[in-house]
Structure formats: C-alpha cells, structure tokens
Amino acid sequence: MPKERLYIFDTTLRDGAQTAGIEFSLEDKISIAGLLEQLGVDYIEGGYPGANPVDTEFFEHKRTKRAKFTAFGMTKRAGRSAANDPGIQALLNSRADATCFVAKTWDHQVKTALEIGLDDNLENLRDTVAAAVAAGKEALIDCEHFFDGFKSNPDYALSCVKTALDAGARWVVLCDTNGGTMPSEVRDIVGKVLAVAPGDHLGIHAHDDTGQAVANTLAAIEAGVRQIQGTLNGIGERCGNANLITIIPTLVLKPLFADRFETNIDAARLERLTQISRAFDDRLNRAPQRQAPYVGASAFATKAGIHASALLKDFSSYEHVPPESVGNERAIMVSQQAGKSNLLTALARHDIVLAKDDPRLEKLLATVKEREARGYSYDGADASFAVLAHEVLGTLPSYFTVENYRASVERRHNAQGEEITVTEAVVKIRVAGELLMSVAEGNGPVNALDLAMRKDLGKYSSRIEDLELVDFKVRILDGGTGAVTRVLVESRDGTGERWYTIGVSPNIIDASFEALYESITYKLLKTEAAQGTTEKVA
After folding, report:
1. Tens digit of pLDDT for each residue in 28-60?
2. 212-to-17, 184, 208, 253, 321 alpha-carbon distances in Å
C-alpha cells in the first residue's frame, strides 16, 4: 500500500525571528536557509519582503535550490484591491515560489482587530489568494487563531477554510496561535474541518505555550493534516513553536507514522539532524539544550551503574531509536567506542576514508573529545574539523607558519578634532622558508588581522583572492576573570561555498586568530582538492 506524503514547512526565518533576543542578519538567513536545505524540508519561509530591509534584500534573490522559497505577509487591506496593496505586491514581486498569507479566522478578531464585517474579511481572503495564483505563486493561508475561532464560531472558521480553497489556495494551515489548545481538541476539530477540506490541503501550525506543540502537531497528522509547520529547535515567540528537530525523526523513525507516511527526509539526511541542530544553536550564539529529544548531548547518555552495564549488553532496551540514526551518539562513561561511526561519517564529508579499526581513528576521536572538553564545538565548525582531522592524520600540508602577530587599538582625535578609533595589525608569516610581513588597518582587531594575514601569502596569494570573512560571533563559555572565549568565523569564496571555523582561548584575539588561520588553511585545502592534488588517506 503506497504511503501518504507529508510536507515539512519551516518557519524559522520568519516565526522564529520573533523569539526574544534573536535578530537575524542577512548572512544569518542565508546560512540558516543552507542548513534547512541540507535537512531536506519542503518549504522555507524566509520572512516578509517589504517589511524591513533584511527581509526585502533576502527576497531579491532565490535562496533555495530544492525547497520552495516562501514569502510571508498579510491578506489585502479592506477598501483597496490587491493590485493597489503595497504589501501584497511586495510579496508577488519577490523571488519567492510561494506566498503564505496570514488571515483572521476568529470572528472576534475580525470585528475587534480588523474592525470590518465578517463577509468583508472573506472577500479580502478570496481576492488575496486569487491575486497570488494569478501571479504564478503557490498560495498558502495561515488561519490565525483557528482553533479559538472554531470554538467561538465553527461555521465562520470553516467558511474561511472553504473560501481559501475555492480561490485556489494549495494549503490552508490551521494555527494554534496562542498555544492553548489540547491534543484531544486538535484531533476533534481537525476531524470536523475534513468535512469541508481534504487532508492533503491542510496544515498545522502549533505554538508551545502549554508545552504541547509537538503533541498537537502529531495529533493533527493522525487526524488528517498533511503539512507540518515548525521551527529549528522550537524557537519562536513566547514559549516557541513546534520543534521540527523533534517532529521529523518521530515521523521518520516511529512505526506509527513511518509505516503510513513518507517525507522528503531520508535516512542519510536524518543522520545530519544533530549536526544541523547544534550548528543552528552555534549560529544563534547559544548553548545547545543538553536534554533535547533525539539531538541533545544527554539524549542517549547513561551513567555508570546497572543501566550502563545492561546497556553494553543490550542497547535497544534503553534507547528508543539508534542514536546514529539521528547523527547523535550514546554517552557511556566506560566506553568511547560509540563515537567512531559519527566520526567516520564526518570524515567522509571531506573525502577522507578510514577503516573502522584504523588506530588513527582512535587518536582523532580522543583529540576531538579532549578539545570539546576545552570549549571547542565542531558541530557548527565543520571546516575546523577538516583541518584538525588532516593534522591528526598527518595529511595536512605545511602551507605557512605564523611567526608572530600584533594587534593594536588606538583612540585619538583626527585633524578635524573628531574622536576616532584606529586598529592596526602586523603579521609575520613564513612561506616556503621566506619571511613575509604584512601590516593592515581594519574595522576592529579581527578585521585588521584578517586583512593582514591575507595581504601577502607568497605563492598562495592567488589561491585566496576570493576568500572573504562574512561573519564573526563570540561567546563567553565561563564567567570570571579566567573566562574562556569561543569565536566562530564564517567565510566564503567565489564558488559560493560558506564554511565555519572555530577558535577557543581566554584571549579573544587569540581565539579569533585561530579561527582566521584555520579558515585560510581550509581554503587552501579546498583549492588543492579542486585541483585533485590533496593527499588521500588510504
């Protein structure tokens, strides 16, 4: 019997951006969209073009290769046509493949918030969807406060669903906007919606205010919806949104769902789940939640004792899924064996192939664990992992060595009497026995060091001409006078590839320099691989 298709709609870049303390830059959005493409979601909702400069610029180019690039906005304003509504036109003129419009479906809000008649709201909804379809966009409607609206006036809530579908909407999404609906209520109400709408045109968008967003989403799927909306790591306003990092492996691995449904996320993509979740947290400059289901560091951890000894004999009794199926690893204090399979997978991403019994693998595993204990995190810095792996395995070419460097910051008054800050960096590098010294001024010590390092790299200079520092994030791992600083640097080159390197030190400049050094080293490794000259590990 063929399986039914489920569609994953990610709202991290729009709904997740409403999380307190999170502000996505353009580079953040581009990078996160790349993570979502790796994961294999079907839709990536990128934001609201026209609402702010970042979102507007983000939608000037198509940012996805496979997922449907989706813009978000509101239905047209009352009293004007869709053609004369700037908000609608910003969406329709963007590079988005699909447009998701939020619509009021609770009669109370239509009357009090929009201050229009119920029929006028339906007309706005109908005209908006029709305009999107006419413009060649796939149209989606997010039915705001749908479950509250249904409880208040079920006939009107259902009329909103039917109006959207009749106008040509591909999906009508039922939103638990305040997160207060119970799973049993979700199941019951979705069942009633199916009387006017087919399940393969319905979606669910749950908030987590009662801690039940995942449960409500799964209940909606069981009841009949076929599109699932949520965010990476469950970020979102107030208490967050349905967590796709929890929902996706449940759909793919649990027989209750896996036997009936299929998604675009196969076993190979699912094995990247933990890495993607932690890389996303690194991008947000926050610590991953250790007890997060499936991907947390403690998700498959067992303390020494009766459970640990039993676990060594029968893993399946104490683990609801194999940890490697989601890219995680079991943590047992008496054994490091479990980490090898993950390490082999990570090495394969960089075309490094080792046998599982290769003694160098044990050495690399021990090195990674030791460095992570000091504050390094390679889930979000894959380029640094590649450099470390080549170094430990003895396959890292000696491109250049840094003899010494110096960075200085001076605040002074210029000729006009204005107070300015001048930053200068001096770097001495030895390439093929030749000592090269470069001096550069920059916008801060990290930028100055970056410019100085790349100013003259001898015979390698031409190979890093298109290298560019894109982003720089700092996190303090420990407080106090001996605080450990972690620096994450994002780089890119002319091929469009982006990579991340990491540095850790009590000194922020040392940590930054380490990350910059490894970024250049990775770029040189990359150019050699492109030329087919990188040494392969047999």
Report:
1. 999 999 999 999 999 999 999 999 999 999 999
2. 21, 11, 6, 20, 22
